[in-house]
Amino acid sequence: MGNQIDPIIDALESRAERRNDRRAFFTAALGAAAVGTAFAYSDPAKAQAAVTDADILNFALNLEYLEAQFYLYAVNGTGLPAALTAAGSGTAGGTVTGGARVDFTSDPNVGAYAREIAADEQAHVQFLRTALGSAAVAMPNINISGAANGPFTAAARAAGVVGATETFDPYANPNNFLLGAFIFEDVGVTAYKGAAPLITNKTFLEAAAGILAVEAYHAAIVRTTLYAKGIPALIDATERISNARDALDGSPAEDRIRGIGPDSDQGIAPSGSDNTLTSNIAPLNVNGLAYSRTPGQVLNIVYLNAATTTMGGFFPNGVTGSIRSTT
């Protein structure tokens, strides 16, 4: 996995600097009243129409389809039943490329976590489909292959987790599975937080907040488990993956109240040493707030493309629904 020391040192220094800046909270808070909470959505296809709650929930449903398929295949070797992938109107769902059962024998605790998360993600799919009713979109074509030409390998190569000719298979062992899960979980948390200001119905907003909380628990499980292993190569890999995600989602101007900024992603490298050693399980800004991503930024990551596009990566033909462009 290359040099395992310099990236960790850089991450530690960066983390320490962010923690020293926490005193800026009260200064930033003085201007909170002047900060707007609505996100602009710039998809040309939606430029003349408001983004509806159904659009937002269907966007979330696409992400839940992806996570559910990844975890279910890792646990069972099979994915969602067809009844949970068709559109609310009956249109058949897409296909899943790849996916395999992970042998958790060497780390049964990770296997237990995986089974819990898989059940949660399937429940999210069911819940959102029920909430949307006939407006629920079908599952798009999804690629979760661990092969050399799959999106996990493409993501790992781009991040420098593996070499340019090496393969990253998240189903090969529990450690690889955790890194595969790490790719998704932080993105899910920032996606739900970023979508919150777009939801107008309070019932839907509370439901989305409930899912956000669960996704945050999942992310914490993955990050804590990776950290507890104490393996430098795994810590290094999380830093590289987080840096790659930041490169994909651009460099928005920092807004400490809304939780937006160019460093909206962090790995699990700790700061300090001995009695001052501090972990980085919760990736937060200087005000202790979780980061937000716009739908476009989320798509940049899952499409594995920093440019303007409507497909790629884990969604080879794009997501289904009205929100599908990275712009």
Automatic annotation (TrEMBL):
Biased composition (Basic and acidic residues): 248-258
InterPro entries reported in the protein's UniProt record: Ferritin-like_SF, Pigment-catalase-like, TAT_signal
Pfam family, one: Ferritin_2
Annotated region (Disordered), positions in chain: 248-274
PROSITE patterns reported in the protein's UniProt record: TAT (PS51318)
Name this polypeptide is given: Ferritin-like domain-containing protein
Species this protein is from: Sphingomonas carotinifaciens
Source lineage: Bacteria, Pseudomonadati, Pseudomonadota, Alphaproteobacteria, Sphingomonadales
